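Tutorial handout. Part one gives the primary structure; part two gives the three-dimensional structure as tokens.
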Amino acid sequence: MKPLYFILLCLISGTAYSQEETPIYKEPEKLPFKDAKPTQQNGKMGLLNTRTIELLIPFEYDQIEKITDAFPYVIAKQQGGFGVLNAQGKVIIPFEYQQLEFYNISSKDHFEEALSSNDFVFKVKKNGLFGFIDIRHKQVLAIQYDKFNYYEKGQPFPASMGGKWGIINLQGEIKVPFQYEEMEGIDNAYVVKQKGLKGIISKEGKVLLANRYASIDRYRNSDSKPLRYYIVTDNSKKGLWDAKAKTLCIPPAYDKIEDACDGNFIVTSNNKYGVINTQNHPLLLIEYDLLKFLSLKDSKQPLLAMLKGKYGLIDLSKKKLADFQYDDIQSLSGGFYKVCNNGQCKAIDAQGRVITKASYDHIGVFVDGEASVFKGKEMSTINTQGDPGRFSPLDGGGYSNLKTLLEAFVTAVNSKNDSTLRAFCKNVTADQHTVAFLERSGFKDSPLLYDLRTKAYTLENIPDMWFERLKRHIAKLNDLQYIDNGRTYLQNEQLSVESVVGPTTFKSGDKEVKINLGGLMRIDGIWKAFSYPYLRD
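Part two.
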């Protein structure tokens, strides 16, 4: 399907002329529709020159789409049908189409060059079928296709006829027979479905990957950025197709393929984790309870690993940087890490050396050589040598562990007690320390500071606002159980900001429910919500 943004781009920025009228408007003031604007009056649309107040097209239409300032035609809708009018309001293409969209089929630039009548067409739908017509109302591509997706100018494209997909050109010549149940464009190729199974063919129809897979989906790292790979699934096992090399680089042999860094992929099998490269060579054996890249950009950085319920740090050469002895490890940025046991935390460097003499309830992220530390009801800062400053009263708090946050949410909901729920809302929403960190670090991916500056709300109001919204959404929830927090990703590597993607899965009674807990982000090592919570339908 052609992306909507491309269609809209064509509608607002294309330039076209008939063969008889092909002026090139070099001067903006001479553009015929420069000051024209679709305008509504008494429920009907017309075209008005906003400078001269001259009515160019009368108020007789349900819809008018101005294509561009230099284009002397508009797309209009009347009595349920679409057609095309010229600058004087004369009907050029009658109102007999269910859909009508402008397409530039030339190599010319809309913004720099004028188009002749052979440079553009209209995609139309009539009696449920699609085709292309020109400005003379002649069929360029017969109106006989169930669907078609015109991707690249002048190139063959997928079309569906009689419920089967093939590839045709603009003249209707069949380049690939109509034999596929589905066809979807990917990087210089197509994913096709035949007899219920998926494969990949080239633009010329050559089979690149046989139809034997249950699904073929674009691979995305946990930072949500698409890479050149596609996950193929065969008998519930995952592999990787390399779209650039056009090869199956990793055969479907794994339960999951997770994060990647520099062409190295974390994979799972039988609930154990390992790392392989794009040659399917194991870098770390599939024997860990958990593996996580702490950097998605630099494979020389350590990985977070778990064995027998304890966390440690390792690298891809299998070198152990921190022993498997900790309850929790989090990145503090700058090559430092927070390690915790029994709720008490210290800071270590990339070689596993402890740099703090004292233990703390929580250690924040290093910004300009300083990190916040929390102890009891007081806080201070440490430098990169672990030396603390003067302690002062605590200006915030919350949950440093996502699972702890979600368990606290379940407890608050099941308590049916407003005081318990309010306490949770206060802990999960932004506080003065959140604001101080955002200001100090320059992190801009949250609207909080802007909203506070514009007085959209006050910091003190946020917990109450959250409480009122949350209480409405959870009123019908009973015996809530936490199932899965979904996917998290490293939103900002430098500041170790992590975010939750999408809703969290819970169980209420015997029903599974999905709840979005307000755009959760781990800011300075503390999970905070930056939007309202809501229950997904």
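Part three, for discussion. Helices lie at 4-13, 402-415, 418-428, 432-441, 448-453, 462-474. Residues 284 and 318 are 7 Å apart (CA to CA).
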